[in-house]
Design brief:
22% strand, 2 domains, GMP Synthetase, Chain A, domain 3, 345 residues, Rossmann fold, nine-stranded mixed sheet, alpha/beta, three-stranded mixed sheet, 12 helices
Length: 345
């Protein structure tokens, strides 16, 4: 059973519950804010302002058995939606905002983000990248950019390269300067990279998130109007353990995951070309089957990805029709297709 089918099944069951004897059902009334399915686990998020008598625990105790009785469901959490879900006061800076996330560092997330942005641009979309890895911004290097961002008409002008607009703290700080943002500083400062940047008309903004779970992720969930998350992992079990934590966090925040990308899936033998699974094998597929989320791509590791990134030329530009470049382009096509049609011009 797919995630969307499971969510529809849960919503149908919840529509059988009404507010009082003659009132509307709890879905159409807005009491049920969202239903998020991650494999056999389901979260029912409630609008805290609509909970009768404010008794969320009693309502959860009543609804959980109803949902647990449905086929394919093993675990149910019913709770009010977190306050960190983005408010609707500020206008989103793009029609679709996609966070690119990994459970741990070193899985090639930033390199993939840069190449994916260029590939989406080559498909005809207007693309921006926000480098939100405040502790190790890498987009300036990956796009071959240096120097400080300029200000014009009260807004910070994003840099541009290879058809993509880019903003990074690397454009605002000297290269050797360390950033000691924590807690409230992140919550107040990071949103400025969204609201105070002259992004212009964007179809999609990719946000390169730091690895793991942190205040950065919560701040962006609160302010960035994230449309969805793309999860990047290597096949190994350690990376998968960490990435599950991140997926759980975004599920708690009612931010949907578009799917999983297995990066560094294998290395080709230089003599015979045989694919060697040096980072493990089959982990991302198992994660896909466990969560019901699609495995969107399985991308092999090749040294040229790192070499071209260090040179500031994304691999999809430098390599043309090479197999790995085609894999990234195919991923871009799949992501573009998952963007709701109403979000595009």
């Amino acid at each position: 059973m797919t995630v969307s089918t499971l969510e529809e099944l849960v919503l149908a069951a919840l529509r059988s519950v009404t507010l009082g004897q003659t009132g509307p059902d709890i879905v159409s009334s807005g009491l049920v804010y969202d239903v998020v399915a991650t494999g056999p686990a389901v979260r029912v998020l409630l609008d805290p302002e609509r909970i009768p008598d404010g008794d969320a625990d009693a309502l959860g105790d009543f609804l959980a058995p109803l949902v647990e009785a449905l086929p394919g469901i093993e675990r149910v959490i019913v709770k009010p939606r977190p306050k960190s879900i983005a408010s609707q006061e500020a206008k989103p800076v793009a029609r679709y905002i996609l966070g690119v996330h990994s459970g741990k560092g070193g899985v090639g997330k930033s390199t993939l983000s840069a190449n994916l942005a260029v590939a989406l641009g080559l498909l005809g979309l207007k693309v921006g990248v926000l480098d939100a890895d405040v502790y190790g911004p890498s987009m300036p290097t990956l796009f071959g950019l240096s120097g400080r961002a300029e200000e014009m008409n009260g807004k910070i002008e994003p840099r541009a390269a290879h058809g993509v607009k880019i903003m990074s703290l690397g454009f605002l700080l000297p290269p050797e300067k360390a950033l000691a943002w924590r807690g409230s500083l992140i919550d107040e400062g990071l949103p400025l990279l969204l609201s105070e940047v002259a992004w212009g008309d964007l179809d999609i903004l990719l946000i390169d998130l730091p690895p793991g779970t942190s205040d950065v992720h919560l701040a962006l969930a609160k302010h960035a109007h994230l449309s969805g998350i793309l999860t990047v992992t290597t096949p190994g079990s350690l990376a998968l353990i960490d990435v599950k934590r991140g997926m759980e966090m975004f599920a708690d925040l009612a931010i949907p995951c578009l799917g999983i990308v297995e990066n560094m899936a294998s290395v080709a033998c230089s003599d015979c070309g045989h694919a060697i699974p040096v980072f493990g094998q089959g982990g991302a597929l198992a994660l896909s089957e466990e969560t019901g989320l699609p495995l969107l791509a399985s991308i092999p590791f090749i040294p040229e990805l790192s070499i071209t990134g260090d040179a500031g030329v994304p691999y999809v530009i430098a390599a043309g029709d090479a197999p790995t470049s085609k894999s990234i382009t195919a991923l871009a096509v799949r992501i573009a297709k998952q963007i709701p049609a109403e979000a595009l011009p």
